[in-house]
Amino acid sequence: MSKKLYTLMAVLLVASMLMAACSRVGAGGKLKIGLVTDTGGVNDKSFNQSAWAGVQKAATEFGWEANFIESKQPTDYEKNIDQFATEDYDVIVTVGFLMGDATAVKARQYPNIKFAIIDNAYFPSEGSAACGADVKDCYDDGGLKNVTSLMFQEDEVGFLAGVVAAGMTQSGVVCSVSGMEIPPVVRFVTGYQTGAKWMRSDVETLNVYIPSFIDPAKGKETGISMIDQGCDVVFGVGGNTGNGGLLAAKEQGLMAIGVDVDQYNTYPEVKDALLTSAAKNVDVAVYEYLKTIKAGTSKAGMVTANITNGGVGLAPYHDWDAKIPADVKAKVEEATAGLKGGSILTGYQP
């Protein structure tokens, strides 16, 4: 074989190695970011929508390519992740506690892709395909070194929502229309009920968990049922299902509190009823995570947003600002300081 041919083969080999090394980068050298929603969809007026906003902001700022796939049912989770993986995406963001097992399985299958999951700690179901029954924590096990969990202390902002609700109720009954009984929702509800009792010890708190995040009709029906029991402040905690509860309050001229994002902006149909929203800054958390991707400093493990670092908090009072008494606002500030300092506890036990 001639020297020229050897040289040509060497050049081709180096080129192929370089191409392989760059195979996870999008066209034109752009990183490719994919978002897989939970079943609520990308326009859920809640945390799927907020997560997508964070992805879009990063993609625009850093010149990346970004796309989303909506999961219509839980059986879609793994195949949606597969779709992004086979299209050479660099980072996949999965939204919601329920996507835990699918994310764990696929993170192991695709170790060269970075994953971020919202609302999973990271403890997939015991005995799942990703974690055996003897594994306490997938991070400790060393099997999910490419996964970052974006977590929120919902109980803290839920507590503040409860303070507002108890401060504003005329009937002495406040309630929550909740989605599935999973840890993020339980944290919201526990904090809400504890905060309401902290504000007013004689207040009655009602709650119903509904096994769906995409059933606004059931949410509305449940909201009406609790309104019939005297509730005059409805906290909607559960995507579109919780939105049904907000609508029930709006239509009956009562008060409501939104969740996850400032629903005054995302759900204007009920804005007249909204005292505030118990916001998780999911968009900020996703954006900040993607900044670490840009900087090359991303790490596996948990990143927790709370009252202290500004990752959760009440949205503005908007139209109710002049109607909420100064003493109620003062109690919100007192509770915020107590949560930050540790003198006030939310009552949530993991």
Keywords:
12 strands, six-stranded mixed sheet, Rossmann fold, 2 domains, globular, 350 residues
* CATH topology name of the largest domain: Rossmann fold
**Largest sheet, order of strands side by side?**
2-1-3-4-5-11
CATH class of the largest domain: Alpha Beta
SSE arrangement, N to C:
HEHEHEHEHEHEHEHEHEHEHEEH
Mean pLDDT: 88
Biggest sheet, in brief? 6 strands, parallel
| Bulk shape | globular
What is the gyration radius calculated from CA atoms? Answer: 23 Å
* Helicity level: 40-55%
| Poorly predicted runs of 5 or more residues | 1-27
Structure characterization notes:
With 350 residues, the protein is α/β, with parallel strands linked by helices. It folds into two domains: 26-152 and 284-305, Rossmann fold (3-Layer(aba) Sandwich); 154-279 and 317-341, 3-Layer(aba) Sandwich (Rossmann fold). Helices cover 43% and strands 18% of the residues. Strand 9, helix 10 and strand 10 (274-280) form a beta-alpha-beta unit. The relative contact order is 0.13. Mean pLDDT is 88; it is low at 1-27.
How are the SSEs placed, and which strands pair?
Blueprint: H1 3-21, E1 32-36, H2 47-62, E2 65-69, H3 76-86, E3 91-95, H4 100-109, E4 114-118, H5 138-141, E5 147-152, H6 154-168, E6 173-178, H7 183-199, E7 204-209, H8 216-228, E8 233-237, H9 239-251, E9 255-260, H10 263-266, E10 274-280, H11 282-295, E11 301-305, E12 312-314, H12 326-341
Helix pairs in contact: 2-11, 3-4, 6-7, 6-12, 8-9
